[in-house]
Amino acid sequence: MKLLKLKVPKTKNRVALVSVAHADDVLLFCGGAITTLIKAGWKVTVVRATNDRWDSFNLDESSSIVANTQEFNSAMATLGVSKVIDLNLDTDRLGDFSEVTLRSKYIDLIRDVKPYLVITFDPDSYLYEDNEDHRKVAVSMAEAMWTSGFDKHPGERPGKIEPFLPVARWYFGREVAMPTHILDVTLQIDELVAATSLHETMLVNMARQLWLKGQTAGISLDKFFTNVSTDVSFFSAMIVKKSRQKKAKSKNFFEIYRVIDDINVLTVLSELEEK
Question: What is the pTM of this model?
């Protein structure tokens, strides 16, 4: 099936909520979509589920939390994100965290932020996905996007909160199983690389994982790891471009999404009401 060109929705409610598990998820998966929305005048709120306390090399947990949070905030500010929200759940432990509790947190956020559009992991695209944090965020947010509209569905906070429902969803993943839309981010790629480079702590740890695999395979990556530890920019360019380069040697870069947008259904119902 030919993928459609992803376009910014035409609406007066130009508010988007982006839900991710980790600090670097935004730029590795959907940074192009976010910058496109922001440049079109949208207000974007990003919610990070975990504290990324283990995503570092040669740092203790508390230092890792501080470093990753500071770098996350800097990266989001560089993109022009309006607001950042941290749920501060333990990283790589969401598999043991209650899906219902996480859903309740997202219900509150949806009702507070009142987004027209939600961007998050695809709950149905587990292809090549080995991160349980990503899966838990995907499933919990997917359910929250309809339960937030029930007046008897509680969030976490006490007291009555008026129900609210988003209209559109843009789902991303490591490999979206049934994609519908494509976004050309070629003109934004340098901007995405620069912002990703701000995640220095996570990039060094990512390079360390490759170094460890090299040790297992008997391949020396000492120079590579030393270079990344000194300057992450070339490694940032490598992973940002690779994740968006769908054809070998292609000069263009793309983000792929599965889009669900109820605006057509709402329009038809409105037209019927007028008859």
Answer: 0.95
